[in-house]
Amino acid sequence: MSETQDTKHLDTFPKLLQHHAKVRPTKPAMREKNFGIWQTWSWAYCAEEVAALACGLAAKGLKRGERIAIIGDNRPRLYWTMCAAQAIGAIPVPLYQDSVADEMAFVLDHAETRFAMAEDQEQVDKLLEIMDRCPRLERIIYDDDRGMRHYKQPFLDSYDSLTAEGRAFRSENPGFYEAEVAKGKGSDVAIFCYTSGTTGEPKGVVLSCDNVLITARNAAELEGLSEEEDLLAYLPMAWVGDHIFSYAQAYVVGFGVSCPESGATVMHDLRELGPTYFFAPPRIFENILTNVMVRMEDASAPKRRMFKYFLDVAKRCGVDILDGKPVSFSDRLLYNLGEVLVYGPLKNVLGLTRVQLAYTAGEAIGPDIFDFYRSLGVNLKQLYGSTEASVFITIQPNGEIFANTVGKPAPDVEVRIADNGEVQFRSPGVFREYYKNDEATRNTKTEDGWVMTGDAGFFDDRAHLRIIDRAKDVGKLADGTLFAPKFIENKLKFFPNIREAVVFGDGRDYAAAFINIDQQALGSWAERNNVAYASYQELASHPRVGEIIKEHVVQVNRDLSQDSHLAGSQLKRFLILHKELDPDDGELTRTRKVRRRIIAERYEPLIDALYSDRDRASIHVEITYEDGRKGVIAGEVSIYDSEIYQPVKAAAE
Question: The domain containing residue 409 runs over which residues?
Answer without folding.
Answer: 282-421
